[in-house]
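Fold it.
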Amino acid sequence: MLLLCALIVGSSSVWADDYELYSGTITEGDYVIYYSGKTLKNTISSNRFTYGTATPSENVITNPSADVIWHIEADGDYWTIYNASVEKYAAGNGTANKGALIASVTDYAKWTVTEKETSTYEFVNKGNTANKVNANLRNNGTNGWACYSSSTGGPLRLYKKVEDAGVVTTVAINTTGITHTNKYYGTNAGTLTATVTYGSPAAAVPGAAVTWSSSNTSVATVGENTGIVTLVAEGKTTITASYAGKKDEYKSSYKEYELTVTNENPNAITLWSEDFSSYSKDGVPSGGTYSYVCNDGGSDTKIYEEVYAGGTSPELLVGKTSGYFQATIPLENIKGDLQLKYITNAKSLTISTSTEGVNISGAASFNTLGEHTVTFTGVTTDMTSITIKFTPSGDNVRLDNIVLKGSKVVPITPAHAKITYVTPYKMDFSDIEGLKAYVATDADGNGVQMTRVETAVPENTPLLLIGTKDTEYQVPVVLSATAPATNYLVKGDGTTVFDGTTPDYILYSDGKFYQIGSGTVATNKAYLHLDSAPARALDIVFDDETTGIDATLVNSEKVNSDVYDLQGRKVAQPTKGLYIVNGKKVIIK
């Protein structure tokens, strides 16, 4: 008899996974391996598998944890035992009374499976035969599971997952907008969404919803029902979207997504990079863009053509006795934390800064071989430089592969006015409070339609900006951007002379574009270029000030079909506004 459990969430049913006592010839599937109240678990302690506990009810184990679920699959004349949570196979290790978890299939991961009496099975390891060990998978009840001899424990029972009735379903995860790398102190990395489909061509499962889980909540958590991902610390985690299925109609399914979190801004630019490759043996780095200072230079702080820090030759020897290495890095419109990475040998080196207002978050001293990270906080856009000092606490400290990164912003002050602007860098206007950016996507009759920029745009993109505050906006510079599909705004070149004969328009203070009569357009400004000149002055219509959805801009005299308002009522004589014509939204001027 199968026990069926249901949890009601809203109007959908969530069905439990049942594992039923199995008998007969073994077949591929998911199993719980059981002996005397203990279940084989996916961890090793003292060379033995640990165990969970289970109490079958009427020969059924309900909802076992993932760490005791094993997929048994044929491999030639043998079987493998695989746990998906750790992505490892249950194996022997060639020694009596010991077991192992391994990532690939070897002889130690292969087993013969023989059915015994009363629904029990004996697992014998192929890889242990060379050591003349009768290596049966056993649980001795005290020390856990391992390849014990036949005198320990006894034949095992198998509980196999009961296959859901109904059609097969597929879960797909949409990761758009999720950032893999971020400053992780409790920050929101975005929202995951998922769809559940069946059949071919794929159709949506009616009313299907997924639940979300994270395999490593110390790296990132995910809202069980919302899919909102919150970053916690560096590392990797597997986020799973699970569909529970609907009894006798749709099978359960799931999809996994691997998230990698680093404490690094993905749009940070490199402010300083130094691997000392431009210096020769016994050279002393000094002067230049970064105003290097080597105390005890030439004696205790100098270049060595050796590899102790783990990079490539040459490296810098930093002050065998009382020296130090110092650099002053120029800053221009840099805001937020700076991240310094470098490598050293296993000697103690301390990082400090004398720049007023800047502090170090976390550790500043390391004495281990390899790469280290130091974070500087308190950096503001009015700072012109930062001074960083590397001071050894002992002899023979080697330093190499220095990289300093930070976030660049561009200050813009449009106040309450509309202005045209040309981006000097790849810039992200999508989430700046009080500042909106637009491109010109359509023009007809007396008007031009402006569409809100929702993504980062490439350098030299001409825009129309509107500020709603009397403040300086700081727009972040990014490393990747997408050009708008359509933009009638053109970057000025400062040299082209307009004489009023071309369909080119410039923005005036009254919020309209007027045909350019004479003069030039500066390189940091933009103008509107059309295929023809419909009028001397063009009003501006903004998509997000109507419905937030693009609409075609037309003159009322050009409408030759029935016109409806947004409530579906037919309009005999439309005035200016937003309407439905031939099933499409139009802005009538």
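The radius of gyration is 34 Å.
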